[in-house]
Write a structure and sequence with these properties.
Helix content is about 45%, strand content about 15%. By secondary structure, the protein is of the alpha/beta class. Strands 7, 8, 9, 10, 11, 12, 13 and 15 form an 8-stranded mixed β-sheet that branches. Strands 3-2-1-4-5-6-14 form a 7-stranded parallel β-sheet, with helices on both faces. Strand 9 and strand 10 form a beta hairpin. Helix 5 crosses helix 17.
């Protein structure tokens, strides 16, 4: 365990663990009175009289049609389950990973998050110095533009000499050059159920490690069912959920579980993650959310329930995710705050459960919620989330949102906002099987959804590429980020801006 980044003494207080957040002056902003009145006086009536009825009618109609004819989505799900380009790879075609030209290739570098991943590599590691890397996408002119913009922003002309690759994931013949001569592909090119199938296939076949930022967990399951055996044979580690969905929660609970086991000889039986979250949405994320809501891919079996050896994990994780707004006390300052559902907790709980299964861990109760400084802010956030999800559930209001309200693919928040106004702090409160209390705080000081997501997925890729022999899991296959990378990833994150502190308090019984 990375001792340098942990607070392990009983004398440490909750405020000590939360100190980095307070030091930086980061806090969730309160909603204005205008925002609250607009939500209550305009959004609520529009939702109740227009958005909700349209979505209900649309889904009732779909349900009726499904009983008569197979839907397009069902046909697409079947095609994804059977997808295989047919490209044949022999062991002789595979270059041993230590002999490959690149450590990392970033696919999707012309997109919003992909460009941020390239920026992180250039700013932190330079160009082809300690890390050998390249960028890939469908358009040479757009890749050149990314290099020019980054060279100007970072005052780093070396970026202009960065290697590029032209890759179209819908054309199988372009894929080998992406995966054959790199140790790891880091991809931000989503939605992944549209653009990710071939990348996973060719990484699995060529023994190339893979890391993505998807939150499309049904798609991940589908890829596991199709390519698990291939990845195990080639030695490729295939990692999804490597961004804000769901590294902070997956890694925090993993570290807490291990600390309880190693220092208190107890199992973690209960954990609650309290999220302070300030971020915004990009156009690519909106597109992905729409496809997830549509339920394009839904595998019959759940490989997230399997242990690392492939057997079914019988210690099922339960969850207690809130459905509404409630008052509570912030553990870091003792002040009253208001909790409400956090959209991505639905994904985070699956990542945590997957890691528990891979480890063969004991049954765990998982809870998670977002906190706001007052009821007004909690109400605005909660109701706007309901309106957004309801509007995305039918094609009419979804079109209006995507066309006139939400950012387009490739667009996102400004760098100033991402660096100065956005952050994530996960305060995890855990209980061991003999009563020992565990508390951890993982803090990302910049935009968790984009700027720090780019850093997370890049550092996941570098963990795979540069420190393969130090990883807690050996061999190929599909893994959760925490299980596959463990302390190696934690160290890389804390070395590049993340803060992580943890303490145990023994029961007085």
């Amino acid at each position: 365990m990375s001792k340098a980044s942990l607070v392990s003494t009983d004398a440490a207080t909750t405020s000590d663990l939360h100190f980095p957040v307070d030091r930086d002056g980061k806090q969730v902003k309160t909603a204005s009175n205008v925002s609250f009145l607009t939500t209550v006086g305009i959004m609520l009536p529009l939702w109740a009289t227009i958005v909700l009825p349209i979505s209900l009618v649309y889904h009732m109609g779909r349900a009726v049609i499904k009983t008569v004819l197979p839907t397009k989505e069902e046909e697409e799900a079947v095609s994804v389950l059977t997808i295989d380009s047919g490209y044949q790879v022999s062991d002789a075609d595979i270059i041993p990973r230590p002999q490959r030209k690149y450590d990392v290739v970033v696919l999707g570098a012309t997109g919003f998050t992909g460009k941020l991943a390239a920026r992180h590599l250039a700013k932190t590691y330079g160009v082809n110095k300690t890390v050998k890397w390249a960028i890939a996408g469908r358009s040479q002119s757009k890749l050149d533009k990314v290099k020019q913009e980054l060279a100007k922003e970072l005052a780093l002309d070396d970026i202009l000499q960065l290697d590029t690759m032209i890759v179209d994931t819908s054309i199988a013949s372009t894929m080998p050059k992406l995966v054959r001569d790199t140790r790891t592909v880091v991809t931000t090119a989503g939605p992944f159920c549209q653009y990710g199938n071939a990348v996973v296939e060719f990484c699995a076949k060529f023994g190339t490690h893979y890391a993505d930022i998807t939150a499309e967990t049904d798609w991940v399951r589908t890829m596991m069912l199709k390519w698990q055996d291939t990845a195990r044979h080639s030695g490729a580690k295939i990692l999804s959920l490597c961004g804000n969905d769901s590294v902070p929660w997956d890694l925090t609970v993993y570290q807490m579980t291990r600390k309880l086991e190693e220092e208190a000889k107890e199992d973690l039986v209960q954990v609650t993650c309290i999220d302070e979250f300030a971020s915004s949405v990009s156009g690519g994320t909106v597109l992905s959310i729409g496809l997830v809501i549509d339920g394009k891919v839904a595998p019959v079996t759940d490989p997230f329930r399997n242990t690392a050896s492939g057997s079914v994990h019988t210690e099922v994780m339960s969850d207690k995710l809130p459905m509404g707004i409630f008052g509570c006390i912030a553990p870091w300052n003792g002040k009253k705050v208001y909790g409400s559902p956090f959209l991505m907790s639905l994904v985070n709980k699956q990542a945590v459960s997957w890691t528990q299964a891979l480890r063969g861990g004991k049954a765990l109760e998982y809870a998670e919620f977002k906190v706001s400084p007052d009821f007004k802010t909690a109400f605005v956030d909660y109701f706007q989330l309901i309106v957004f999800l309801t509007a995305m559930m039918n094609p009419i209001t979804r079109y209006l949102l995507q066309s006139y309200v939400l950012p387009k693919p490739g667009e996102g928040p400004s760098m100033k906002d991402m660096e100065e106004n956005h952050f994530l702090s996960v305060n995890a409160q855990g209980v061991g099987s003999k009563g020992t209390k565990a508390e951890a705080v993982m803090y990302f000081p910049e935009c968790p959804g984009y700027l720090d997501t780019a850093r997370m997925v890049t550092e996941c890729g570098l963990s795979l590429a540069l420190q393969e022999n130090q990883l807690p899991s050996q061999g190929g296959g599909f893994f959760s980020p925490a299980y596959a990378l463990g302390d190696v990833l934690l160290k890389r994150l804390t070395d590049t801006g993340t803060s992580f502190n943890m303490k145990l308090t023994k029961s007085k019984k």
